User: Fold this.
Amino acid sequence: MLTLFHATQSRSGRIVWLLEELRAPCAIEHVDIYRSLTGTGRSDPANLHPDGKVPTLMHDGALITESAAIALYLTDLFPEADLGAPVGSPERGAYLTWLAWTAGEMEPAYWSKIEGRTETDAAARKRYDQVNARILTALRHGPFLMGHRFTAVDVMVGGALAWGLEHAPRDDLLDAYVARVAARPANARAMAKDAPEASVAA
Ligand SMILES: N[C@@H](CCC(=O)N[C@@H](CS)C(=O)NCC(=O)O)C(=O)O
Assistant:
């Protein structure tokens, strides 16, 4: 059995979206989190994450945290949905690279932009520019980041871009991509489940 610990308007929304894309049966436990940008909320004792963060996934007693690890875990668990790349497939290397890159490069680069460090720190600016160049280069081949096929990478990157679009460079290709992935029916279904009052076991 799968259970996702989720907080409204947070990183775990991407996992709700991915679960919808996968059509994976999963109970959603809405929890509170501490929100550093507003200083609101609190770490919820009901959340099994060791640091009180989300997303947190439980699968038959196994605890999985970290958005990229959860995305990989789920796409491996539901290979028939074809949203990942199985071990041994030619795309596996690129798939793992993109997933790790979202956590290791994209997120820190965008946070440095949000916090203004890209204005004062040349290394932060370079990283931010490299991140956007990587996305735009992939989208020129598109329509998705791994080419013709929509994958969990598009949920991770597209979801992050949709959240932080005001911090992204103005580019028609990027805007069209975010609109394209955000318009997916699974995203609409996920958004309907985002708030606590909408909590249901899928
Ligand atoms: N690297 C983690 C970051 C998780 C994270 O920081 N989540 C935020 C919500 S967007 C959170 O739970 N914050 C609560 C806290 O920092 O206590 C991931 O990608 O899953």
